[in-house]
Amino acid sequence: MPEFDEKQKHIRTMLAERGLDAVVLKRVSSFAWATCGASSYINVAATEGVATLLITPTARHVITSNNEVARFEQEEKLVEQGWEMHVVPWHGANHAISDLTRGLKLGADGEYPGCVNLSNEIACLRANLAPEEGERFRTLGRLCADAMNSAIRAVRPGQTEYEIATLLVHH
């Protein structure tokens, strides 16, 4: 897992440079980046997902609800990456983050109470693609281009916009 290890190294370096004990990642984009592609969203329009990452120099935690934990363990395979799962009820107050971070100097990927806002630093980390990420983007680009080419060639006069969009989705 060179990509994952490299990202964790960048996070630990950022923590050391800023004199922080841990970072809290709630944003969908930060979650996906730090886990090498795991998805924490349910609502695609939401900025924050249904799980929070807490990263210290020596540990990696996922805080999520009891109705989501199986997905993160089985589908997203986060335990295999070394994340420790902390399960909270899907309803009511979530004290897991405050319990885990009591007394720690924290950074976060946004404006969160008691945390240094590291959103710019984390965005810069996400923008510098690892070689594996670059290859995935090239593959995705090729697949999208192939799908678009196939869909364009299948368009016929008289088709509606929705029919054409369906062709693209199909391809």
Q: Can you give a write-up of this model?
A:
47% of the residues lie in helices and 18% in strands. The chain is an alpha/beta fold. The chain has 2 domains: 2-128, Creatinase/prolidase N-terminal domain (Creatine Amidinohydrolase, Chain A, domain 1); 133-170. α6 (131-154) crosses α7 (161-170). It starts with a helix and ends with a helix.
Instruction: Please give the alpha-carbon distance between the first and last residues.
Output: 31 Å
**CATH first level of the largest domain: which class?**
Alpha Beta
And the CATH topology of the largest domain? Creatine Amidinohydrolase, Chain A, domain 1
**What is the annotated CATH architecture of the largest domain?**
3-Layer(aba) Sandwich
Share of residues in helices: 40-55%
The biggest sheet, with number of strands, parallel, antiparallel or mixed sense and barrel status, is: 6 strands, mixed
Order of helices and strands: HEHEEHEHEEHHH
Q: Order of strands across the widest beta sheet?
A: 4-3-2-1-5-6
CATH superfamily of the largest domain: Creatinase/prolidase N-terminal domain
Q: In total, how many domains does the architecture comprise? A: 2
